[in-house]
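Thread: quick sanity check before group meeting

JM: Hey all, I'm pulling together slides for Thursday and realized we never actually wrote out the predicted structure for the chain we discussed last week. Dropping the sequence here so it's in one place. If anyone has concerns about the input, flag it before I start.
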Amino acid sequence: MAGRRTNLGLFALLLAALATGTAAYATGTPAAARVVVAAHAVVGLALLILSPAKSVIVRRGLRRPRAGKADSIAFGVLILLTLATGMAHAAGWVAIGGLRLLLFHVGAALLAIPLGVRHVSTRPVTPRQTDWSRRTLLKAGGVLGGGGIAVVATERIVTAGGLPGAQRRQTGSHEAGTGNPEQMPVTQWIADAVPAIDPADYRLRLAVAGATTTFTLAQLRRPGDPVTATLDCTGGWFAEQEWAGTRLDRLVGDPGDARSVAVRSATGYTRRFPLRDLPHLLLATDVAGGPLSAGHGAPLRLVAPGRRGFWWVKWVTDVTVDDRPWWLQPPFPLQ
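JM (edit): ok, ran it. Output follows.
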């Protein structure tokens, strides 16, 4: 029946939205980001295309006394909130009450996941052989094609209307503070707080092949190693700055048989990189011609061009080069 296939289509689109949204958070290079973010937008608007058919199913279900009805309603509300905040962010509405709109978008999506699992488990819909008919596949293609057309139309409306969303980066982020670090938002991952570090007492510990070396801040401040790179935060903003400090490969020297380098913050936050990234990583002490502020990682932060902001470790205290594979870590930090 049509209602069952609508539910199957919505379920597939929700899985695709989760996958593309996760990939969009991880993607830092413009070419890859353009594809992933566009796919995420197509899937999101395809969900809207199916919403009128789903509304018929919802009205029918509300008339029946069924277990878990409140959870199902909450799940639907969260999905609508996710779609609404995503579209508003794309148009250029950046924040609500000082909080980035993209945080509401991601937060609503994450809250929807357990409710969605309960909804599907209490109202299972099993695919059938007939669901793979040519007619059904053409309808599915039509829904996705409609989502693509809606994305193009929306982008043209945003551009023609001169909305701020027309200037967003390929990742979907909006510019905030390019060339002026004081205008960059101060953000950190989940529960991290800005630590109090005295620059005079600061030491960086570098461990390579079991040998540990320490460096003062003065030893790390190298005006000859400037890097122009874009910090693209998963909170929905980006800023291009000139960063200065010490290239990590200069400090490490010969890594021997090592396979990766781990960069650790004073807060315990850690990201591990493949050894091939060494020549591109900078331990920055300065930005835009002046010292880093505490909120932006002083006295030392990592600059990782081509990677999203959560890779740019702030308040770096330890660098370890060892033989662990770089991918042996959660794709997103759990701290």
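AS: nice. The radius of gyration is 23 Å. Residues 2-175 form one domain.
JM: adding both to the slides.
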